[in-house]
Write a structure and sequence with these properties.
By secondary structure, the chain is mostly helical. Helix content is about 50%, strand content about 10%. The longest helix has 17 residues.
């Protein structure tokens, strides 16, 4: 197996690449006041996606990456929910966005390689991938549910 981490050729998506994905797909990112959520994504009736991010609520690059990737995940997978519909399951849409974000920020082959190199502490893995510890736990859980991580 190629040692992607050691060679510095990680496939993980960099922060600027997340902004490029949004721009390429016509998703506008705006700064706005979001004190309870830090970020939000919406899709208009015409199909345009917008992401709102509160830069005053985000303290680290890891938080920025996680919030941005999650919101882009909503746009990329069209996983939006209608709070007024009893048939729309919010958790299902959130999980779709999370899975997309995990695939970009913590690719399985790189996570597996980190494990093989002995990096197993959540805080260490989070630092390695520049994500939050909460997101790293989410990534591991997603890969476990897929049955590709034990």
């Amino acid at each position: 197996m190629q040692n992607l981490l050691k060679q510095g050729r990680r496939k993980e998506t960099k922060t600027n690449e997340l902004y490029e994905i949004a721009e390429k797909n016509g998703t506008e990112i705006v700064c706005c006041d979001l004190p309870r959520t830090c970020s939000v994504s919406v899709r208009t009736a015409s199909g345009c996606c917008f992401i709102g991010i509160d830069p005053f609520e985000i303290e680290t690059t890891a938080q920025e990456r996680v919030h941005l990737a999650h919101e882009i995940g909503h746009c990329e997978t069209l996983s939006f929910y209608n709070t007024y519909s009893p048939l729309d399951i919010r958790e299902k849409q959130e999980k779709k966005a999370d899975r997309w974000a995990v695939s970009k920020l913590v690719p399985f082959d790189e996570l597996n390689e980190a494990f093989e190199r002995g990096t197993v502490e959540i805080w260490d893995l989070a630092e390695l991938f520049d994500v939050t510890e909460e997101f790293m736990l989410k990534a591991i859980e997603i890969y476990k549910l897929k049955g590709i991580l034990i």
